[in-house]
Design a protein that fits this description.
single chain, 104 residues, mainly alpha, three-stranded antiparallel beta sheet, 3 helices, 3 strands, globular
Length: 104
């Protein structure tokens, strides 16, 4: 698993590693694709936060459910949220949330 400066992200990734091995799709899923997509998303989030949330952020939310759940956790700790709640896409916009009660 890839490592990040933020220990919370590393904890999420460690939890993900355990979770995916227990998932019924583990035996036939292209795990490398999903993990690489998740890492690309996290890299974009980290860069966006370091850039003081400037500009627009779009992520690929079209990943395996355990990876998606981890993505949402990483967004949450940075006060970010995916806009398209009812769908997944390869270019889903992310917004900053001021009130944590708005999390999904």
């Amino acid at each position: 698993m890839k490592k990040y400066e933020d220990k919370r992200i590393n904890e999420f990734l460690n939890d993900l590693e355990s979770t995916i091995k227990l998932d019924e799709e583990y035996s036939y899923r292209d795990i490398e694709y999903d993990l690489n997509t998740l890492y690309e998303n996290i890299d974009k989030i980290v860069a966006y936060v370091k850039n003081d949330y400037k500009g627009d952020l779009y992520l690929n939310s079209n990943v395996w459910n355990p990876c998606y759940d981890t993505l949402v956790k990483v967004l949450r700790i940075n006060n970010l949220k995916l806009i398209g709640c009812d769908k997944v896409t390869e270019k889903e916009q992310v917004v900053f949330i001021k009130n944590r009660d708005m999390e999904r």
